[in-house]
Task: structure prediction
Amino acid sequence: MHICVIVGARPNFMKGAPLVEALRSYSGAKVSLVHTGQHYSANLSDLFFDQLGLPRPEVNLGVGSDSHVRQIARIMEGLQDYFVHVQPDVVVVVGDVNSTLAAALVANKLMLPLAHVEAGLRSFDRSMPEETNRVLTDAVSHLLFTTEPSANENLKREGIGEGKVHFVGNLMIDTLQKHRPKAIALRMPRSLGLQPRNYALLTLHRPANVDTFAQLRRILSALEWIQKEMPVVFPMHPRTSERIYQFGFETVLKGMTGLRCIEPMGYLEFLGLMDGAAVVLTDSGGIQEETTCLGVPCLTLRNNTERPVTVNVGTNELVGNDPERIIAGVSKVLSGSWKKGRLPDAWDGHAAKRVADVLLAADYHQQSYR
Ligand code: UD1
Result:
């Protein structure tokens, strides 16, 4: 059986890695990994392949950055040629980035069986490009692997047959559990001169937070307060650095002596920093899940989340992008009254094996896979 796994952007690599490893442990499976090249910078791509032990991809389409339309179109053209050439039995896509949607549409047009890992998550906010990617990918998938109960409810409401949906847990947590000891051994907080549990870690890259002058300024004003209370480390996504430069905020940042802006980090380095943080502030999806697994307080700088289990069960709270709410959240952490949270069901480090078992047991010749 030939299984083709597609990855393209940073958050895909942590989900693809345990799946490729689990599939390769079965002798009957040929697994090919395709990288669309949506992310191409060494610290957003190659470093992750190295640290996570991902095999070199069979092919890298090298599509790079562009408008979403051009990026998706280029991925689709490249993947069509590849799929026609290798004729996989099943295509597996992960997450919700543009590469996920592009690969799903190509599989659909070529009538290839399609599996989606991390299906069913919904923010109900169509202004997020990822939300459209999720809804459309799920609509054309034959096998849908979910990470939390809300995803199963969402798919049921959208009329997706329950027989197609498999609750397997969280592949990104498989990766976290496997690599956590190595990440801790790096002693990242100390190497940056920080005391464990005495610093905040910030990530910011959503267009809604960084693409307008006024909104980014509001978040920076909350940051001005936080960095006086405790050191803040800010590994800056390239989209955000571009905006900081474009809006002329460099001097505002330089004036904050408790703030440390650094380049985007490797997986292990970032995990090590998350693990030792007093609090994480983020607008990422995956980090909400990782902090829940680590038991570290997480303030999500958005008004919605497609991952409600991290709020209902885990350590996450939504604080939006209003400075007062952000500061109130950090104050609550500092006062020691943040909730403890627990690990969501099936986030046990074995999700990839459960996905592999379903993928390998399926009979893709059945009409239901066309
Ligand atoms: C993409 C995903 C988002 C994910 C994020 C993680 C979509 C729609 N968005 O957003 O869901 O959370 O990745 O990082 O798929 N750039 C580089 N090097 C790179 C890639 C990008 O410098 O390797 C710069 C480019 O200037 C680019 C900008 O970052 O224009 C934004 O990159 P893009 O891939 O368009 O979107 P992300 O914001 O990274």
